Amino acid sequence: MRNPQLNDKGELQHLLTIEGLPRETLTHILDTATSFVGVTAREVKKVPLLRGKSVFNLFFENSTRTRTTFEIAAKRLSADVINLNIAVSSHTKGETLLDTVDNLSAMHADMFVVRHAESGAPHLIAGHVASHLHVVNAGDGRHAHPTQGLLDLYTIRHYKKDFTRLSVAIVGDILHSRVARSLIHALTVMGTPDVRVIGPMTLIPAGAEKLGVKVFYDLKQGLRDVDVVVMLRLQSERMRGALLPSAQEFFKYYGLTPERLALAKPDAIVMHPGPLNRGVEIDSAVADGSHAVILSQVTFGIAVRMAVMSILAGN
Amino acid sequence: MKIHIKNGRLIDPGNNLDVRADLFIAAGKVAAVGRAPAGFNANRVIDAAGLVVCPGLIDLAARLREPGYEYKATLESEMLAAAAGGVTSLACPPDTEPVLDEPGLVEMLKHRAKTLNLAHVYPVGALTVRLAGEQLTEMAELRDAGCVGFSHADVPLQDNQVLWRALQYAATFGFRVWLRPQDGYLAKDGVAHDGEVATRLGLAGIPAFAETIAIATIVETMRATGARVHLCRLSTRDGVDMVRAAKRDGLPISCDIGIHHAHLSEMDLGYFDSHCHLQPPLRSARDRDALREGLKDGTIDALCSDHTPVDEDSKLLPFAESEVGATGLELLLPLTLKWALEMKIPLVQALARITKEPARILGVDAGHLSEGHNADVCVFDAEHYGKVSVAALKSQGKNTPFLGIELPGKVCYTLLQGQVVYEAGNG
Amino acid sequence: MTPVLPDPEALCAELVLQLKPQVTADTALVGIHTGGVWLAERLHAALGIALPLGVLDISFYRDDFDKTGLHPQIKPSQIPFEVNGRNIVLVDDVLYTGRTVRGAMNELFDYGRPASISLAVLIDRGGRELPVAAEYIGARLEVPSGRMLVLDRDENGKLRLKLDA
Predict the structure, then answer these.
(1) Is the complex ipTM higher than 0.95?
(2) Which residues span the domain enclosing A91?
(3) pTM of the entire structure?
(4) C116: buried, middle or exposed (CB in 10 Å: 19+, 13-18, 0-12)?
(5) Choosing among A43, A45, A134, which should be mutated to test the C contact, i.e. which has the most C CBs within 10 A?
(6) B306 tagged catalytic
């Protein structure tokens, strides 16, 4: 089955998921992002690469944060950006997903950045649009968040350099997390030998080991000697779905406190995709402490998204 | 009308025959097998050289979409699809709109089908009123109106007290109860098999034990009531083992699987192919292999199409939002032949799964070609490979994972009570 | 007819002679990746330029992005001095259509407003498609169109010119 992300020449036409992308492609994106970090540090933060191109942010699921970073990235490439909150517009009037996409394509869009509550929605859109259009997955259900996986990868590379010597722990609601899935694929492709997921059994998906990770139910064991700790955000809905009793108990056994962090390597870094739930998955002392690189993730996130959009637009 | 089907390879699972023999039909019945009856003057001769002549196929589950879902398909289109698929008898589940819980609705459906005269339609009545799982239907009245059994379609029957009483009541009259073994709570919101593929694709999963827990409940209730039960659409290896054990214990249990589950697994979901959005979900390769073995050794009695025509728009949605089901009447024969070829099963044994065994489960006199009995016949070319295409499918449902795939078996003629109701090349 | 290629070491020395009278304490040198940077490093050392060398990768400013896409290898640009009010000497190996220089100037202007930009090139091969001219030229050379003239550097840092088909 041909990879739907690639065009006939084998170049990246869409970015839908990290799964299936070769190491060279990921490295190319990270290297390109390095140059964009330099751009965002200048006074004139723009380059003219996407001038005249229209980037449509199709957000079927609300997210001001992610939408804003994509908007900033597109504008720094000199693209025209249109924001669509489909949650409140024609979609609820009964227009199908593909009809909405067709209407917007007719408005001469060049790129769709799509966030949707259902896994597979960007794949459906990518398979449907004309061949000159590019689709970037900004998060679909619990399936994938490839730009987040890439910026997490960039952050780890920035601080730790060599993936083949690392031990990385991902903590929290793995079951529902597209961030976790994308990061796991990214790390394994880059040759990370020790990738761990840590959480209560209710939040670890079936067959997780088949993704190439070790499963830990005990945080203290799972954090031992790791180089990178990635804390996932815990959503309050999980408390209602008979998956967890309370945020308090979760924090008591799975929250990242300075004492637990001390079990990791002395120079371990702490990451979080944001927004933080202080006192639920992470202690303020850790979030504001010297190990946390959370704000760097945000800066790198813009450069990584600029890299992704430029590479796609040029293919 | 007198018909002589000559030179065919007669495969009759009902009489355990696989011979070169001619078939003679008169007044809607089989007049003779092998040698012409005295003074037989055929009005029509069909040359079946190189073709298989078998009893008309019997499909245990085909949604005809009437009453209530006519925008998806109509009785006409789906029964034409049945005839084109060589299916002369089919059972339809009660989940129509309104639900088949009243004798009047059943009679109307049977009457409509009889007028169209393309296949025998055997409605399976609802076990509870409106399939709401609370009040029993008038099963005896429904049987008199033509129901061959009672089922809860795909609606979970969660209240075990109601299940118990329903089985007791059915057992009182000797009725067979058709049940889909799936625990409603464990399957809630799930759209795929809870395993490696669902985890990778980020789809909510239905664990295998949602089926085995339900089978255990049903089997225990059978032991307590003596009711006859047919399990619809098994999907797990462990489920097959449980049925095997129950049969060994002498319980009056039978079961079927859908044609897609005999071939596909969770791997076929690929990149969120909504044509593979089925209930029960396509499970692991190990499960699929156990189903194929179970079909071979007879633990699984029958193969059915689980025909569910869906309009294409309902499939052009993100996987979890897409409508469940696949079209199947015209794929029943090809997919049975494919299974037989791959597992090297003699045709007479393979065809039993879609003729003799379903007839037994329906409790109707069909699935065999015997003198004096209905001449429901299917004549097909077992060697012919045809590509499944939107244009070729007669059903209004074009939704199948096998689109574009070449499958064996082409129906050349279908006869219903001695009348040709389908002829290949005649549209 | 394959042209005879001049010795880039000699041309480099020639450029040093041309530039020396113009260099002040405030002169800035900016090389364009990749050949222009090698040349600029040599000039920077030979001329004793005070300000650190600037390097530009113009991948983000090319005008053929829609046709050829993003270059697979991009090096970061670095301008380690204030551009506003600066007299900048832009350095490249071969001046041909002029599009590279246009991209470089656009990029420089995104860093600030220079007082002036002058251009120093090892070879001017003609074939201009834009109104761009160099003040400091090592040599003029006729190269058949369709062939690429590139600067190369061996393990010892010695510069060589090559003609690619």
Answers:
(1) no
(2) 23-144+298-314
(3) 0.89
(4) exposed
(5) A43
(6) yes
